[in-house]
Write a structure and sequence with these properties.
This protein is of the alpha/beta class and about 250 residues long. It is about 45% helix and about 15% strand. Strands 1-2-3-4-5-6-7-8 form an eight-stranded parallel β-barrel, surrounded by five helices.
């Protein structure tokens, strides 16, 4: 069975002191969490200090972005070696805010994925549709296109060990949430698409999260869906108490 992954995406929030205080509180609250993986994807400036705190706890760290080059004249970017040096196991690739605000293309994201795999970093690849695409009934086409473009040249054994995160853009930071049935419908479609692209074993192995206004009050119903393997959590991951309730959703 796939182990659920509850990952917090702090986005551009928390100073170093705030980050350390939060994980110090969180590590005790989730210490007894069983059969679930826990991660926090924090701003780059926070990661070194957080790594000192999480130590041997059950909390893993992730970066919110990563460039596809090992080093060089790429001002403000982070290399795989840099994020690994501060304890990152995961890296978010292709969050909708990176796609929409910063213009990251599917071709660029494909390069980032290949670099993550080459450096033993587990990518969390975000895919999802705009409200206009859902209203037009093209949301299935959109996520299928993203999968084909982003996973081009990626091997089945790599896909098995990555994480896919379905995030409908209309549900990110809006307070709106896809119903559990809506989320399950498209995540099931994503898994079927992976099977078409690869094989049954790969489709059954890959973890697919839901992201978009996940809160303590709705996480249990979301996680009851058979194809949903965790959550990529925004605002509710910024407070230890609320995030711990999401981690311990059972």
């Amino acid at each position: 069975m796939r182990t659920p992954l509850m990952a917090g995406n702090w986005k551009m929030n928390k100073t170093v002191d705030e980050a350390v205080a939060m994980v110090n509180e969180l590590k005790d609250l989730v210490a007894d969490a069983e059969d679930v993986d826990v991660a926090i994807c924090a701003p780059a400036v926070d990661l070194y200090a957080m790594n000192e705190v999480v130590g041997d706890t059950n909390i893993d760290l992730g970066a919110q972005n990563m460039y596809y080059k090992e080093s060089g004249a790429y001002t403000a970017e982070l290399s795989p070696a840099m994020i690994k040096s501060v304890g990152c196991k995961y890296a978010i690739i292709g969050h909708s805010e990176r796609r929409e605000i910063f213009g990251e293309t599917d071709e660029l994201l494909n390069l980032k994925l290949k670099t993550a795999f080459a450096n033993d970093i587990v990518p969390i690849l975000c895919i999802g549709e705009k409200l206009s695409e859902r209203e037009a009934g093209t949301h299935f086409d959109r996520v299928k296109f993203q999968l084909a473009a982003n996973l081009s040249g990626i091997e089945a054994n790599e896909v098995k060990n990555m994480v896919l995160a379905y995030e409908p853009l209309w549900a990110i930071g809006t307070g709106k949430t896809a119903t559990p049935e809506q989320a399950e419908e498209i995540i099931k479609f994503i898994r079927e698409t992976v099977e078409e692209m690869y094989d049954v074993d790969t489709a059954e192995a890959v973890r697919i999260q839901y992201g978009g206004s996940v809160k303590p009050h709705n996480v249990k119903e979301i996680m009851a869906q058979p194809n949903i393997d965790g959550a990529l959590v925004g605002g509710a991951s910024l407070e230890a108490e609320s995030f711990s309730k999401i981690v311990k959703f059972k």
